[in-house]
Hints:
- The protein has helices at 2-28, 35-50, 69-80, 85-112, 115-127, 129-134, 141-161, 166-177, 185-195, 199-223, 227-232, 246-265, 267-272, 276-292, 304-321, 323-328, 339-374, 389-395, 403-411, 418-425, 453-462, 483-487; strands spanning 383-386, 429-434, 463-469, 477-482.
- It is mostly helical.
- It folds into two domains: 2-30 and 66-361, no CATH class; 379-487, no CATH class.
Amino acid sequence: MLRYRRIAFVACAISLLVVVAHVGVAFWAQSEFTQPEGIVATQAFSFAEEGKLYYDLKQYPYTVCAYMPLFYGLLAGLYKLGIPLLLAGRLISILALAGIGSLIWKILLLYTGERLYAWTGLALAGMTQLLLGWGMVGQVDMLATALSIASFYLYARFEVLGEATLDWAALFAIAGLFTKQTVVAAPLAIFILLWLVDWRKALRFGVLVGVVGGGIVLGLNVLMDGRFLLNTVKANLNPFALYKLRLPMEYMLIVLSPLILILVAGLRPSLEMKLKSPFVYLGFASLVFLGTSAKVGADSNYLIETSVLLIVCACCSLRALDLFSLLARGSKSWVTLLILPLAIYGVQNLRVASSGLSNRIEREAKFRVQVEGVRPYLAGSGRVLSTDTNALLRAGRRLEVETLIYRLLVEAGRVDGAEVLRDIEQSHFETILLYDDLQKTPDPDPEIPRLAAAQMDAIRQHYLLVAQLDGPNLNGLYIYQPKSSIVQ
């Protein structure tokens, strides 16, 4: 077994080097990795500077604070301490990623009882491109997942060791839900698992999560005159499109399939060894993923929790099949062949992680050139309307309209677009930044940030294209200014 402990140690060391490389790029980069990262940062900026969060969407700024308040509060607090917004968000996610790695280790120690499988889980997590990619982004996903996994870990301590940790599990579940409202898999799994053994404890857990969490939600909504639920629920119901499932499904088939193969191979013996709890949690996480990831605006971040649990369950399957003992004895059992999908998973993820790192470095270089090019157009005191949040964030400008979500709400008739249309027609915006060349047929992709059709027509009538800057997104930025100011 010593040989395989050394292999696991080397794999963990490689994982650590990959993580350090990603962390280094996250600290170096000055521009957003994803557009939601920039949007969340601008919203946290308003919260820190003006004390405003969750808007009524009847007046400027037309931006939906789509997430729960915990991440916004932490981000605003770190900004107040002098940490730049993007870096502050990334620090939160990096710490959450470290927490997830630690929790994978602890959960596997509880359920497998052997450090070798815990080391294996930790190595797999450190190599997983999905975790590395999103673990460096200042969005809510990693913190929400870490809190959710922590809730399950506390339940596992109750189940395996008999410790009185269920109330703490409920509190961490609530904290997760107040980071991202869709991380419901852990509390649902814990409730069902408890119900199977002690319905009284299940009810206590459910009441604690439901009453405390629900009470805070209703209280915040009353204090904010309905704006809280308007932002986090009503305005957050983006249209669903089945084509959105294609990319995450391809990711599962190409990248996660080795873990799925191992999980299936060891499912029956895992259940016989009473290792069912992580599998139940995985089942609920998969259902949540399938139910939420097809909406417009969703990305691979919706697969984070499922990926973490696939790692845990795959390692439980390996333990149930006794892989490393069979390998140590030189067994000819088919089980020993499962070392191959493990190796394939590691190599494939390291390859994708390396490519992702190169892409981020390349995007940052393009962003830096674009930011310098757009700087003169944002130097004045006039109002700016921009589909590109990075330009606003880097210039310290206010986000007046979050164009993608705003357009979806206007098209659905849930927000009145008249005020923005009037301001465009009256040339109240000194500069407008778009991803579209208004003289060409627009790309029909519904996820490209742009305004509603009537507002785009108004820009076409009252503004002129004054510059086009290359950049990492689409064909770069198209800069428009009022015809009246150019004529004068």
